[in-house]
Prior knowledge:
The chain is an alpha/beta fold. The protein is built from 28 helices and 23 strands. The strands form three sheets. Strands 15, 16, 17, 18, 19, 20, 21, 22 and 23 form a nine-stranded mixed beta sheet that branches. The chain has an eight-stranded mixed beta sheet with strand order 7-14-13-9-10-11-12-8. A six-stranded antiparallel beta sheet has the order 3-2-1-6-5-4, with helices on both faces. The longest helix has 32 residues, at 145-176. The radius of gyration is 29 Å and the shape is globular. Phosphoenolpyruvate is lined by residues 480, 482, 521, 617, 638-641, 688-689.
Amino acid sequence: MxxxxxxxxxxxxxxxxxxxxxxxxxxxxQSAVSIVAFHMRAAxxxxxxxxxxxxxxxxxxxxxxxxxxxxxxxxxLGEGIVGTAMKELRPICEGHGSLNPNxxxxxxxxxxxxxxxxxxxxxxxxxxxxxxxxxxxxxxNYFHKNDIKALxxxxxxxxxxxxxxxxxxxxxxxxxRLPEEPKVEEVHKQPAFVKGVTASSGVVRGTAxxxxxxxxxxxxxPGETDDVSSPGLEDFEIALQESISQLTILQxxxxxxxxxxxxxxxxxxxxxxxxxxxxxxxxxxxxQGTSADRAVTxxxxxxxxxxxxxxxxxxxxxxxxxxxxxxRLLRNIQQHGEDSGDYSGQILIAKELVPSDxxxxxxxxxxxxxxxxxxxxxHISILARSLRVPMVFVENERILDVEPGILILIxxxxxxxxxxxxxxxxxxxxxxxxxxxxxxxSVLPETFTMDGTKIKVLSNVNLLSDxxxxxxxxxxxxxxxxxxxxxxxxxxxxxxxxQRLIYERIFNGMPGxxxxxxxxxxxxxxxxPYHQHDEEANPFLGLRAIRxxxxxxxxxxxxxxxxxxxxxxxxxxxxxxxxxxxDDFLEAKEVMMECIMELxxxxxxxxxxxxxxxxxxxxxxxxxxxxxxxxxxxFSIGTNDLIQYLLAVDRTNESVSSMYVCHHPAVLRAVxxxxxxxxxNDVDVSVCGDMALNEDMLKFxxxxxxxxxxxxxxxxxxxxxxxxxxxxxxxxxxxRKLLRFGTLREVNAFLTSVDGESA
Length: 759
Ligand code: PEP
Ligand code: MG
């Protein structure tokens, strides 16, 4: 029977899923070796795991050898073929294993029956020793070059899963050392390890707090009776004042942290509190003899009922605000006022959050967020990254049932959670965090590939706080300022003056450097709470971005005027999002020209010559790219949307996230077409979508001629290090090969092959 390498590679995705389903670590490893042995048609497949402290490899699972050896057979680094493969970080393929000078027969596992030997190191990020994957067969010379490629591909795919498994193993070992039998409830306790998807990277730990706001249920009244000892009007007034001052503190804290209008997020709470219909109604009930806490509960629940029945999603979202306020008032009435809603040292687990919730919890110092619904490129993720709050999406709703107060470690870089982790796991993570800190400190002011090609690395900015990070990480400018964020987090449209001040602060943060200000991209998953957006069945296909601006000319002109004024005497670049035709682009440009004429006649200082460009993020724009190149000064490729619209996969819908693939042949060809047209028409081009964060894709982008990227500022050190290790010629070969494939299957196989790594 032929070996089935391509299928094997495809099954690795299955393996990762299998890990979540496995009852135990050994179950998982056993399944892994069985699947690999089956597809490789090999008699034996084994996994050895590496213990870096002891420099020892231990047999962790095997199909074909004597399973009595599992957990017992171990080899030192450099010992035997397996130890040598690990030590020298290279695959070893032997037609006759016993003839290799390093061969070390191990008694009792019947290895001597299998002559053909292939050992491939399992390496995390290409360098960190995780273990060794071994296949063996009785037929000499059974393994060939293609098998090495396939096994290497599997190894790199498995590295992350196995690394996590290793952490778990130390946890299990610690459990096994417990002298007593485990209690029944411990046997049934929640899984200690949960695999999710990274929304915002970082490693943090904290105690679990479950957000009870989901489901829009009611506030629960505390006491049973309204007797004389119940809190009255005086208690209510004190609690109200206490709540107002707590919210003011939170608002100030946000101001300090973000330095922009984000602080206004708590304005909504303050406004509701001061509203006569809200607190006045409570006073009325108290005057009629209802206790203060029951009065609060009753009024809050009336509001919850009202808002949750509303068809307007923005009003529905207010349910959480009102409920939050109710809790705050009740806590203060019950004189637990010292709790000012501070989430320091805590990990928040929630079913669903809106952007304003993310801001609110960040202001309340939450350490990290675990969320069930959302998408990696959804705007709550983008916001969490700006706020530097690690965030992971976990598909399984059971995460909401974790025991409040248990310790959770979030490795948002890998998208994993450890519930109640062992000290050994925590220790490993401490050293990982230290390593990342060192990497961050070694970032350079400019980026060159190995052969000296300059790649300009700019920063995406969502909130003003990102600028600090961009400066820290030596960004060479701002390639995308998402101007909608100050609009989203306000309670009203910011004035032209307020906008001008924000844009000026961006220029001030990057003196003399390139700054691209993108006009409003609202609609889709970004709604303005204070604007009556039309009800849309498909908001992502609706009045989004430039369509919204062209329909709301007053808002558009105000923004353009603010940009032109802030950009006086600066290198101003204005960019229009969501352009689907040359006509849209020219219409938007005409509005800008009107603004220029107005400013001229008003005698205000402004920039009369901004460069004007567009986001290439719609399939229609790709089709007319040459015509757009004639009209525009620059292109920025928005791969987040380009992928969504090319593949018809909602970027915010986690249940179709497996279909949201940046290496789809259609995406690769579209991006190539855009870049090629830009180069031939001498139009400046950059990539500002998340595709530029993926190493395989970065190599592709450099290979097709991209020389400028704009990314989240926290990613700059990692991306720079990768770019510095690239050869442009190698990248060109990689891109050429990728562009030849017509199926995802081929692309996947290539990217996980040796060729994919070194082409
Ligand atoms: C994109 O679409 O790739 C992009 C960068 O813009 P946004 O994520 O704001 O839609
Ligand atoms: Mg976009």
